[in-house]
Structure formats: C-alpha cells, structure tokens
Amino acid sequence: MSLEKLQVRFADHVADLHAKGIAKGDEFVVTGVQSAEAGFGERYFLQGFGDRAFLRMNSNSYLGLSLHARVVEAEERAARTFGTGPGAVRFISGTYTPHTELEQALAEFHGRHAAMIMTAYATVMGVLPQLVTGETLVVSDALNHNCIINAIRLSQPANKAVYQHLDLDGLNQTLVAAKGQVKRVCVVTDGVFSMRGDYAPLDKIAEICSRNEPDFEEGIFTVVDDSHGVGAFGQSGRGTEEQSGGRADVLIGTLGKAFGVNGDYVVADETTIRYLRETTPSYIYSNPITPAEAAAAIESVRLTDSSDGQQRLATLRRLGRKLRQGLSDMGLETIVGDQPIVPIMVRDTGETSAMVNQLFESNILVTGLNYPVVPKGDEEIRLQLSAGHTDGDIDFLLGALTCS
C-alpha cells in the first residue's frame, strides 16, 4: 500500500490553488521577538530573513497580553507545579485546579452560571451538533466563520438556511416560513465577523427570535461565536453582547485571541453546560489545554478586568480611530467601528496579493483575503490592531501604504 497513485492528484490540487492565488503557501517561522522600544511596539524576526524586524499587523493578540509579564509568570509557575501537559482527558485524571478556576472566572466574566473550556476550532464543531437534532432548522449568517459552516454540516439538521450578511429581514422571513416545519430552531452567528470586523446586532436578533419562538414546539435559541470580540470589543471587553446590548443563549469565546493564550470555551446556563460535558465528543475524548495555559488565561481575564486592561482597551480604540482616519484620508475603503479588525476593502484578488507583497517588502506582516475565503468583490487586506501597537507603528504602516 502507498500514496504514490494519489500524490499526482495532491500535487495538481496544490498547484491549482497557487495558480488561483489562494494557496496558503509556506508558513513563516518566527525565530525571535524584539522588545518594544523608541516609540515602536514589538518586532518579529522570521526564519530566512536575517535581521529584518517585522511589524506584525496580523496577530489575534488584541490586548497584547501574550507577552505580558504577569501572564508569562503565571504560566511558568503552573508548569513548575503541574508539569507541561495534563496527561489525560478531563473525565479520567486530566482536570487540574487551574482548569476549574478558569471556568469559574470565565462564567463570572460573562455573567453566566457555568463555563466549559475546550481546544480551539473544535469547540463550535463539538458543541453545535449536540444542540441540533433531525427536527432542527439551523439558520446561519452568510459570512459566518468556517468552523460554523463545518459544524452545521456535522450536525445534520433537518434543514439549514443562510441569510444574507446582517440581513435581519431575511432572518425573520426564514423563521416565519419555517413555522410548522421543524420543532426546534438554532440561529448561529459570529459576534465580530473575522473577515470584515463588523458585528452582529445581537439585541435585534434576540428580538426576532423571541417574536417567532411561540411557533416552535422546542423553541428558538441562539449560538454566538464571539472569538474576535471577547476581550477586545465593548467598553469593558465583554464583546459583542456588551456592544450590542443583546445576549446569546450559548456563547463561545476563545482564549487564543485577546486573552493571548490558547484554547476556546463555551458559557451558558448550568444545565446546558452539564449536558455538553456529558455529550460533546471533542471535550470527552480530547486532552484539555495544559494547566499552565489555564493559569495564564486566568491571569489574562483578571488583567482584562483591571485598570491595566481598561487602558489597553482604550488604546486599542484610539489606535483604531487613527488607523481608520488615515486610511480614509488616503482614499482607501474600510469599515467603521471600534472593533480591532480594520479591513482595507481592495475588492480585487491581484491587487490584494500585490499589496500584501509590497507591505512585506516594507517589513510589515498583513493578511490578504481573497476568493473563495471571502466572496468575489470583497477581497481585502485584514489589519488587526493590538494594544501593544503604538502611534509610531500606525504612522509606519500608513507611510508604507502611501508608498505602495
């Protein structure tokens, strides 16, 4: 047995991706970090590029906590105490004190009764199928993240419907049309949308669901993945719920973005979390994040709720306003708001790729998003701000864009 007969197909597929300009390509390998100095934030060194120091505008570490001394120290202390790995799944002997303390901290942070930590990406993939039956309609925003799309496929609902991005009339019409067709409806959406940086109006979505819920025997519930909002959006970092004034029935967040560590989590009422612990395969059969990672995440949650965290959030919003104004002054299209994702809407695959390459030559790392990752005509450069950035960094970026 061998893969020899398939290797030609594999190679052709990868070559086709490159020809279309949508291949991920070789990964950049970070070899070191240069500390912030002289009015500039951290710079990153890459394997194969010598002493060139890069400004990183494509990191999810929105609050800059991954390099915070207190977060690093918390992880080091826990690693010395508990070791480097959990050694088992949660139900055998892999639950450590930092795991349960982190779940309590996350539940309290979001004003919920209970939380369950999991590994990244697998959270939505594991949770959603447990909430969907063969008599459920799943309704999804057209620009939801890939993890939601795949989770819906895995769920095998009675039916699924997709409404145009943020089209609340379309959402309402879908619910009205489904009356008498299914017992249960799940409305699932990103909080902050990872590609564009805009966000779902959860208050209005909740009102639409509440209005239509009496028509369904098992009701309507909402699942919101706010991985790009939690910690970095809203006045105190509570994400899209805080910004919109709405509330999800099941809220999924991440520890790997604003909190600067690793892993995901879900918060809900105690009954739902207990049910998910008993039924979610990716929770039951997978090792959890390490105790050290959990300890680091606890410190990140505390920092986010501190005066330090509030200052970081204020810095993030201020830098966002400066960047958006600078882009607008150059005639570049972007999306307004306080969220840390700032897209440059290039709307052309070739131009997007060229801009990514030009910025790289200026020692700036950015992410270009082309079709089919985004719809045709929505090609963009996704800039991601961090509280670790400075005014000097934004000026450096805008200067490079002016020259490109």
CATH architecture of the domain at 69-304: 3-Layer(aba) Sandwich
Question: What is the chains' assembly state?
Answer: single chain
Approximate helicity band = 40-55%
Mean pLDDT, rounded to whole units? 95
Spans of at least 5 consecutive residues whose pLDDT stays below 50 are: none
The CA-CA distance between the termini, in Å, is 51 Å
Query: Quick one: overall form?
Result: globular
What topology, given as strand order, has the largest sheet?
Answer: 4-10-9-8-7-5-6
Order of helices and strands: HEEEHHHEHEHEHEHEHEEHHHHEHEEEH
Rg over alpha carbons: 22 Å
What's the total helix number? Answer: 15
- CATH domain class of the domain at 69-304: Alpha Beta
Number of strands: 14
Q: Mind telling me the CATH superfamily name of the domain at 69-304?
A: Type I PLP-dependent aspartate aminotransferase-like (Major domain)
Query: What is the CATH T-level topology of the domain at 69-304?
Result: Aspartate Aminotransferase, domain 2
Strand content of the residues, in percent? Answer: 15-25%
Major β-sheet annotation:
7 strands, mixed
Give the helix/strand class: alpha/beta
